[in-house]
Design a protein that fits this description.
single chain; alpha/beta; Rossmann fold; 11 helices
Length: about 350
């Protein structure tokens, strides 16, 4: 195998190797066992990060840097003052995620769901820094100049352009009661919504929920630049099927019970954001939580369909849409999915390309 280190970053409400929950049920692998251990046995150097379950992409990126570098989480003086939270967070001194993090390090960042935004923000700051945060005693993270440490970025079912799962509940013109939902799906969907809500409110403008609103996700996209030396890949997912009337419904055998209520809503929703983005029929196909069109690539970024014989850096290489729901690539919640073959194929390709 090559010298690559594969860093896996979880999505909303997720967890990683620093969390006790990972011992009971690993986020990467679920009931199939710890995917990190399985991939290490095959020779791949894999690690599972632990970032704030409901935190913003910025805060999560800062925590990811602290874990890789074995330092205390520093959210930046300007950022922390702007959003009124503590500047420093969890300290990873003495317990780094990887043995060394220097210019000899070659990372492949793999982000699921909101982990996709997390790794994109992390990579951009690592490369370009943030001038407003470069005070004398600030984190080296904000100085930038370390983009050469990243070889590739892979996003899985990531809401690059946000998701209508938030917007439709806030749109007064949309009536959820007009959509037929099974009672058990409604109960399960409400349970999932509660689980995805933080116990204490987060600062306005500094949370995962804020970043995943479509207008905010598109605004974030404009601040992030593709690195011409980095390979970018995205894996869109879909677990819906079109009805005769043009709406979409979840595939019951493919979609977790927890996701079906939201999937049904997303499958009929049409509207527009406050910023004027028209959400037409193309936004209806979904994986239960994320619109398939959003998980393909950031809207204004260059992209091509993935071709294994011709992979370009500095552009999104979009894999063929996988018929699967939002958690299928983690191993599934109630639906069990064997995911090791998928990751063996993915990492084998990445190792040959970047190793």
């Amino acid at each position: 195998m090559g010298n690559l280190k594969y860093i896996f970053v979880h999505g909303l409400s997720g967890w990683g190797s620093y969390d006790k929950q990972n011992e009971r049920m690993p986020y990467w692998g679920m009931r199939n066992g710890d995917l990190m251990e399985q991939l290490r046995k095959l020779g791949y150097d894999c690690y599972s990060a632990s970032v704030a379950p409901h935190g913003s992409a910025w805060d999560r990126a800062c925590e990811l840097y602290a874990q890789l570098s074995g330092t205390r989480s520093d959210y930046g003086a300007a950022h922390s003052a702007r959003y009124g939270h503590d500047r420093y967070g969890r300290d990873f001194t003495g317990i780094p995620l990887i043995e060394s993090f220097d210019d000899s390090t070659r990372l492949v960042l793999i982000g699921h769901s909101f982990g996709g935004a997390t790794v994109r923000v992390f990579a951009d700051i690592l490369r370009n820094g943030r001038a407003e945060e470069t005070e004398e005693n600030g984190s080296p993270f904000f100085k930038g100049g370390m983009g050469n440490r990243i070889a590739a970025i892979v996003t899985l079912a990531a809401p690059h352009n946000g998701t209508t799962a938030y917007l439709l509940f806030e749109d007064p013109s949309f009536d959820p009661k007009s959509v037929r939902v099974w009672h058990i799906e409604d109960v399960a969907g409400r349970f999932m919504s509660r689980n995805n809500t933080p116990d204490t409110p987060l600062p306005e403008g500094d949370s995962a929920a804020y970043d995943m609103h479509i207008d905010n996700a598109l605004a974030l996209n404009k601040t992030l630049n593709l690195d011409p030396a980095v390979y970018y890949f995205s894996q869109p997912c879909e677990s819906t099927v079109q009805r005769d009337n043009g709406t979409y419904r979840p595939m019951v055998r493919k979609t977790e019970l927890l996701f079906r209520r939201t999937s049904r809503y997303m499958g009929v929703y049409l509207g527009a954001t406050r910023g004027g983005v028209v959400l037409d029929e193309r936004w209806r196909p979904n994986d239960g939580l994320v619109n398939t069109i959003s998980s393909m690539y950031p809207m204004e970024d260059p992209h091509v369909s993935f071709e294994e014989t011709h992979i370009e850096p500095g552009i999104w290489n979009v894999f063929e849409t996988l018929t699967a729901d939002h958690m299928a690539l983690q191993g599934g919640l109630m639906h069990r999915h064997r995911v090791l073959p998928y990751y063996k194929k993915l990492l084998s390709m990445l190792d040959a390309l970047c190793g």
